[in-house]
Amino acid sequence: MYNQQLRGLTFDQQGLIPAIIQDDETKEVLTLAYMNKESLNKTLDTGETWFFSRTRQELWHKGETSGNRQLVKEIRFDCDADSLLVKVKSLGPACHTGENSCFYNTLEARNTPEEMGLNELAALISERRHETKED
Amino acid sequence: MYNQQLRGLTFDQQGLIPAIIQDDETKEVLTLAYMNKESLNKTLDTGETWFFSRTRQELWHKGETSGNRQLVKEIRFDCDADSLLVKVKSLGPACHTGENSCFYNTLEARNTPEEMGLNELAALISERRHETKED
Lengths: 135, 135
Hints:
Two copies of one chain form a homodimer. In chain A, 28% of the residues are buried. Helices cover 23% and strands 31% of the residues of chain A. Chain A has a four-stranded mixed beta sheet, covered by helices on one side. Chain A has one domain (3-103): Phosphoribosyl-AMP cyclohydrolase (Ubiquitin-like (UB roll)), CATH 3.10.20.810. In chain A, a hairpin with a 5-residue loop joins strand 1 (17-23) and strand 2 (29-35). Chain A is built from three helices and seven strands; from the N terminus they run αββαβββββα. Chain A is an alpha+beta fold. The A-B interface holds A 1-2, 5, 9, 18, 20, 22, 26-29, 31-32, 44, 47, 71-81, 83-85, 95-97, 99, 102-110, 112, 127, 131 and B 1, 5, 9, 18, 20, 22, 26-29, 31-32, 44, 47, 71-81, 83-85, 95-97, 99, 102-110, 112, 127, 131. Strand 7 of chain A pairs antiparallel with strand 5 of chain B, so a sheet runs across the interface.
């Protein structure tokens, strides 16, 4: 019954499609993982997330050992049909580190000039002037 | 100043890293796009999203023609440092179709038996019985 639905999706050269996992209630983005057709079918059949591990090259049922399974509430696909958004109710932390989301590291928190204090703004101006000199 | 931050990130064999774009206020997931180092540096430098188009094989500044630019509020990276979560304030619809999010198609809205009406549940049981017979 699902093959019809999967036919329109684009899987990459490795047979994978990226799946964004989002908490259905809090809207927090939990993980970016990958599915192949088999894991997507298992996800649809069981109502829990199954992924394909690129490092181990095998299917994995999220939470099978930890108990932190993810119950699928809805699956969406994007305008190019080459990525998925899977909304879930998570039975525990999504990340193997114990963090709720895998995205717990901040690369850059950008402030607009309006949100900066004067000292911070002065530091930024000085830094940019310095960078310009180096060009 | 940014090379230090980017050094820890893992780009794939094509030099790309997937970037989940999320509305910073509504938490709606808008797009999954790809960045290379150059587009990520431009994103950090300008505070607006720049991507790498895999089909056109070129950088693109989101919203440059449509005006629907995305102002970056925060960038996070995941536990494997091989995907990004970019929280933005969007100046217009994220999708080229005019939809607010690229994820406007539903693959499957799954209901638990508790949430189903009796008719729906009976139909599902009948369908599964039918599928089993075909095996």
